[in-house]
Amino acid sequence: MKILNSIPKNDGYYMPAEYDKHYGCIIIWPERADSWQYGAVKARKAFSEVAKAISKSEKVTVLVNYEAYDTAREMLPENIRVIEMSSNDSWARDYAPTFLKNDKGKIRGIDWYFNAWGGLYDGLYFPWDKDNKMAKKICDLYDIDIYNMSNFVLEGGSIHVDGEGTIITTEACLLSKGRNPNMSKTEIEEKLKNCLGAQKVIWLKRGIYNDETNEHIDNICAFVAPGEVVLAWCDDKNDPQYKMSKECFNILSKETDAKGRKLKIHKLPQPEPIYMTKHECDGLINFEGEPTRTETERLAASYVNFYISNNAIIMPGFNDKNDIKAKEILKNIFKDREIIQIYARDILIGGGNIHCITQQIPYFKET
Amino acid sequence: MKILNSIPKNDGYYMPAEYDKHYGCIIIWPERADSWQYGAVKARKAFSEVAKAISKSEKVTVLVNYEAYDTAREMLPENIRVIEMSSNDSWARDYAPTFLKNDKGKIRGIDWYFNAWGGLYDGLYFPWDKDNKMAKKICDLYDIDIYNMSNFVLEGGSIHVDGEGTIITTEACLLSKGRNPNMSKTEIEEKLKNCLGAQKVIWLKRGIYNDETNEHIDNICAFVAPGEVVLAWCDDKNDPQYKMSKECFNILSKETDAKGRKLKIHKLPQPEPIYMTKHECDGLINFEGEPTRTETERLAASYVNFYISNNAIIMPGFNDKNDIKAKEILKNIFKDREIIQIYARDILIGGGNIHCITQQIPYFKET
Questions:
Q1: How many domains does chain B have?
Q2: Across the interface, do B141 and A83 touch by the CB < 8 Å criterion?
Q3: Which CATH number goes with the domain that contains B275?
Q4: Above 0.85 for ipTM, yes or no?
Q5: pLDDT in the model for residue A27
Q6: Is any Cβ of chain A less than 8 angstroms from the Cβ of B74?
Q7: Is residue B367 part of a domain?
Q8: Closest-CA distance of chain A to residue B145, Å
C-alpha cells in the first residue's frame, strides 16, 4: 500500500457510481452499547440479513473487533469473510475508504479525516480514533494504494456521485461548524471535485429531519442512473420534512448535471414518523457525558438509504404502509435488479440505515 | 470459509514441502514485554529485515495487534501488507495454519490446538487464547477452508515434511506431557499421517539443547530436498548438544523415507554457545508468576532455523565464526537460491528464530 499525496483527479482517478459493477462490499459489525440496544443482538441479526442479501452477488467482508469475532463468525454464513479490525462503531459508509477507479481497471482509496460527525463541536461520540484509522487499514487489507486526505473532514455518507462528473451533497452537513469551518464553500467544492474526479457539485440545503449526521445526502437523495435521482418525499405539510424535501425538489428541478442534463426526480414517500420506544431507550448504555436518549426522539427513517449491489437493491422496511409503495417505485427504476426489503428498525435505532452500514468496492483487476 | 471435520488425507490434501512454490508468507509482529527486550525495538528491526528479505520473491503479510499497527506500518515497506489481528505473541510457524494443497491447485488450512508449548503443564505463557484463534482467522482472511483439529495439540515448528509422504519430528516434543498425554505414539503418528497426507513419520529423539519448545524439529533438522536433510551438528564432546545431534544422525542414517530412499544428511555446524546478557535480561518485563530469566541461560541457537522463500534462503547469523561456514553449506545445497543471512540474536532472545516467526502459504489458484 502506497500512501499518496497527489490529487486523484490529476492521476486519472474518479469515484464511480454505486450502480457500477462492484468487486465487493465492506460491513462493520455492531457492538457499542450506546448505539445498539440490549447487547446489539437485534442489530447483529439485521446486519447479518443485509450482509447475506448483498453476498448473493458480491463478496462481503465483515470487519469486527477482536472480542466479537466469534459471534460474528457464528452468525454469518461461510461465504462471508469475517476479519478482525478495531473500530469505535459500525458505519462503513462513513469511514471505510471512498474508492476510486481509473480507466485501466485499477482502484485506489481515499482516507478522509473522520471525527464522528462533528468532532468536539457536535460529534456523536468520543474517541473516534479507531474508526479514523480504518480507511488506511482497509486499503492495506486489499493491497491497494490510498490518498491521504487527512486534512479534510468528510464521511462517505455525505456524498453521492453519478460516476459521470456530478457530485451531490448537502450544505447542512458539508458547511457544518464541526467539520471544515475554515474552508469556504468554494474551497470545499474544489476539494470534492479534485478528490472525486468530478466537474460539478449540486448542493441541496438540507436532508432528513433530525438526522444526527447533520443531514447526510445518502438519507435524502441518491443517484439511481446518470441524470436520475430519488428524493425522500413528504406530503404532510405539518411535518417538518415537508419543507425540507420541497426545497430539495426545487433545487433539483432547476439544476443540470455535469453533462448538462436536466435531472429526472423520482419521489420516494417517507414512512410515518418513527420514534424511539421506552424499551429501546432502556436497552442503551451511555458512556460518560453522553445525553440520554428519550421516547420523544424521532428517528431519521428514509427509504432512500438503500444499497445497490451487483444484482439487487437492499432497501429498508419499517412495517409501514409505504414499505410496499417505496419498493414498487424502486422496482420500476431498477428493472434488472431484485428488490430485497429488510426490516431495518434495529439499524435505524443506531442512527443510520442500510446505506450507512455498507461500503462498495468497485470492480477491479487484481495484480 | 468452511470449517471441515473430515480427514485431509481422505480429501486428497497434503502438506507440501517448504521448498515448493509459495503464494506468500505470514509473520506476526513482536510485542509482548516478557519475550522481547526493551519494547521490542531491536526485535522489530530484525523481524522487518526478515520480512523484507522474503518479500523479494513472495507476498508478505504481517499481522499485528491493534496498538502496534501504526509502528509496524511505519517500519515495514509499502510492498508488505500490514493487517490487524490480535495475538499473544509472534510465532507464525507455530499457530498460523499448517497449509495443505491438493493436485488441483487448491489449498486449505489446519487449525491445531495451540497451548503455548505445553499448556498448564510446562507451557511458556498464559493465556494463549488469541494465538489459538489465529489459524482460523487467517484462513478467513485468505478465504480458504479449514480443518478443525482442535482436539489435537500441535505447533507447526514441531513438524517438517518432504512433500512426498514423509514427516519428520521429535519425540521430546510430540510425546511431551503438556500436549497430547492421552494419545500413544502410534495414535499420534496416525493423526499426523492423516492430517498431513503422508505415509511415514521419522522420529528423532531430541532437538537443540535448552530449546524451550520441548525441542522442535525445525531447530535441529529440516528437509532441503526429497531424500535430503540438514542436521544441526556439534563436534565438541563436552557440549550436551554433541550427544543429541549424534543420536539424530544415527537414526537418520538408518532410516528411509516414504519412497524407500536412504537420506543424504548435510551437517550444519552449530554456533558457539550463546547466553543471555544481563542487559538483555534487564530489558524484559515479566507477567505474574513467570520465572525471571538470567545470564546463565543458554539460548537455543541453530542455523537450521532458516526459511525457504521462492528464491532465497533466509538464514540466521550470530556474529559467530561458523556464520560463513553454515552459509556456504546452504549455498551448496540450494544452488538456485540466494542465501540471505540476517543477524538474528534479537529474534533468538524471544525463544526462536527465522523459521519460527514465518509461515509459508503454498501457491494456489485464486477463485
A1: 1
A2: yes
A3: 3.75.10.10
A4: yes
A5: 98
A6: no
A7: no
A8: 9
